[in-house]
Batch of 3 targets.
Target 1
Amino acid sequence: MDAEKYDKNSSTLSRMLRIGVLSNAIVWVCSIIALIFIMQNSSSEKGLFPILAGGLGVALMLVSIVQKQRNSVDS
């Protein structure tokens, strides 16, 4: 019975983690798109691109880690 409860709790936490990671990646993508629109009027914001691209890179790495963890648990 405890194993069932642990599996259910683990899958719920894994699902919440996937949702959080994917929403984080979406926020970074939206911020880069917003930066592109802002840069059409003024080019002084070009310095923000490396920061936003770095954040997107970390978000995509987290998506990859969560997917690998999910696949190893399912196997």
Target 2
Amino acid sequence: MSEQDKVHALYQELVTHFLEPLLNGGVAQCTRALPPAALDHFTLARPVETTVEGSILEALARLSSELTPVELVEMAERGLMATLMAVHNLFWLTDPELDRAFARGAREPVREWVFELIQAIPMPRTRSEALGRHIILDRALALEREDTVVKNWAYTYRFYGRPPPANVVALPTVRFVRQDKTQRGMLELALEGTPELDLETPLRALIARSPITQILRHDLSPDLRFGQATLAVLSDDGLRSGVAQELVKRGSGQVAQPFGHALRVLSAEDPSPQHLFVAIALIADMQILEVFDERAGHRPRSEPAVGDEELFAAVLPALFQVRGPLQGLVMVNPSDARELRERAAKLAEQAGADAVAMALTLLERAQPLKESA
């Protein structure tokens, strides 16, 4: 078998046994570690079985459409494939079977491969590219590994992420066989399961390459920032609306502090008026949606000067005071306008006059994308 044939066989294992079940709720199985040198081949390759390719493409479109409408998410896209390979290698490294004398030496080189693959992930240029890598990461972060401890009258066996062999669990009554199964999330395994290897750093670096994931999983980004890639993705009105709806499901209590902090940091960096507008538009979308969501009602925490939560809450009342095109962010049906104004008045009281004045200053610096064109 030629070297190219070996690489293609590895690709077939990846898409058939890891990617397809990952997207469709099956049992994802890691293959061998994936070298960055295979990325070019993997990006151009296609599954041998058309049913596998169809299943993957259908799942990518279906899962992406839960955030915003999209007709097609390409599987053969460099950013998606590099994300997939990095995710695979990252979780391959959580296997306790690698912590053995003759396997331990392979871990550090594969960890370096993860960083190389992360560096190969370009900034998303389209809605499809942004959604594709997010779906891969989102599904991977939800993976669980089933570990089994098998005890009989004489021995105890441990199987990590692998089913016990038939001979080990045979004749359960005669041999007093007992099985205890536990589920461990892949996120837990990466952050806590291998402290001597430090998988947290590459995991956070990988999430940073997926703007949608970074926003929706802000709990994994202790110091959330509105970077250039994030603001570019949020410039897509459909994506921004879908992201805002997903965040609203978690309530203001979960998003007020990190997004208020991100807005504060962005404003101090002297961003372009258009980038500032995109960040404000996301917060405005969340606050408007919350007015009509029964889970709303978070009161911003009072802090010295203007706290992050107070700045977040002050955006909506400031929008009713600003003059110019930004007023379009609070244009709603006349039947909803009264309720929106009542919420804005309540937030203004809770946030305080200083916070509203600060938010108004930021709004006056912002400029919609259409206006800039």
Target 3
Amino acid sequence: MRIIISFFLLTLLGCSSGSQGTNSLVDTTKSVAKADTIQQDDYEEVDFRKEFISLYQKPILIDTSFVDQAKTYEVIFHHFSIMDNGLVVPAKYNFDTNKDFVTHNFASDLTVLADKDTIFKNHITKSTFNNLLDTLGTPLKKYATLLYPTLSIKNDSIQIHYSISIPVTDVGIGADIKFDKKGNYVVGQ
């Protein structure tokens, strides 16, 4: 019963405001709704790009240790933007701006120490994964960078997982690099 009374009162209110007021109210509502949608979409796209750009100033540093066969191993991992303006992502990958996006490559340094003696140091870049990228095609090899690393230590090996992705897109692959205690490594997917 309340619903019927509410509907009747709203209908009566709408009719009494005149046709000019009703049309302008509807038009204003449509304009405001459309403007809100555009601003919200722009905000989300800009937010995503800003989030990526903020990674330039947020290096990842992991310093951990483990004991194996009475030796203490220390693993120091540093992932960072090299601030080189070395990637130009073409406009066809930037649906939000339809412009080329100039950005930076990311790299990692891995150092492993055994009882304070350096066993190995390795600088990891996208080119470390060239054999894998050669089989996948040109776009990743040209426009992708190393993102979102995770490090795990299992038995006598260190594994780092990356997303090799074109910045600010969902185009990319997951890739792993696995090191033994001597610094030898294997790259895989």
